[in-house]
Amino acid sequence: MKEQLEAIRQEALNEIDKATDLKALQDIKVAYLGKKGSLTSVLRGMGSLPKEERPAVGEMANSVREAITNEITKKTDALEKAALEEKLEQEAIDVTLPGRPVQVGGPHLLTSIIEEIEDLFIGMGFEVREGPEVETDYFNFEALNLPKGHPARDMQDSFYLTNELLLRTHTSPVQARTMQQYGGSRSVKMICPGKVYRRDTDDATHSHQFTQIEGLFVDKHVRMSDLKGILDKFAKSMFGNDRKIRLRPSFFPFTEPSVEMDISCKVCQGDGCSVCKQSGWIEILGAGMVHPNVLEMAGYDSETYSGFAFGMGPDRIAMLKYGIDDIRNFYTNDKRFLGQYHHVKGGTL
Known about the structure:
Blueprint: H1 2-18, H2 22-33, H3 38-44, H4 54-90, H5 109-122, E1 127-128, E2 134-136, H6 137-140, E3 159-160, E4 165-167, H7 172-182, E5 188-197, E6 209-220, H8 224-239, E7 245-252, E8 255-264, E9 281-290, H9 292-297, E10 305-312, H10 314-322, H11 335-338
Helix pairs in contact: 1-2, 1-4, 2-4, 5-10
Cofactor: Mg(2+)
Protein name: Phenylalanine--tRNA ligase alpha subunit
Enzyme class: ligase
């Protein structure tokens, strides 16, 4: 039986040495050490041995089992290490190769325009205020001299959520809220950028959602000439120092008197072309002196305080400044279009 055990040892060690993968090693372990393995079969025959031989044979059997087990463990470690090294070699990264460029986004053109306008007015002492996009009928209309039934409400066809709540049609409610917050006791110098909503058919120049920036300056002895100076500085900053402005009489319920502001056409220098419809001028924004009723409703004494307000559309300003002919380009998220303006600085009409 000792000869059988030695033969099993040598045979098992030879097969372990020849094994090339972990599955082969597992098969060898089962073949020699399993319940039906060669070594187990030999050990079952120990009962037929004389008692005096059994200890020596048992000791040798344990030695054979230990030798086979140790060799399988060593071979397993070697195969696993080799497999890991092969995998690492296959997945090796050449750190000397140049990196792949990462696509970096940039600010939306409208965001850039709004920030440019904010910087300009902050430099003139204005603060930036924000307000809710879901607004009450009172602040959207009534506090701005547009009582229920006023015909001018039809100029701003609205998205009503309830009888008293709607999506704001302009950012003027922020002005009304700020004046009421100040309680008629201090001056107001602010702009309020944000999204506004109107029931409109989307086309190249109209959208049901667009951006707006409105400004307000209320204090003692504020005059129309102050408004003209502010607007002239705005036009020259946004469109170039050679821009001229003109103010035309107009009507807005919350200002009196009211004006429309035009800027001279960059394309034709005021001579008339298709861009300005042969007029030499392009309409850019509306403005005027704050109506006394608006001041009084906000708690201001209209005999002591006066002010001006203006409203402009960053969408329209961007279209004029960069020659964009379709407002829908701002909202369709086409990266081919938006990517052209990630690094735009300044620019003229």
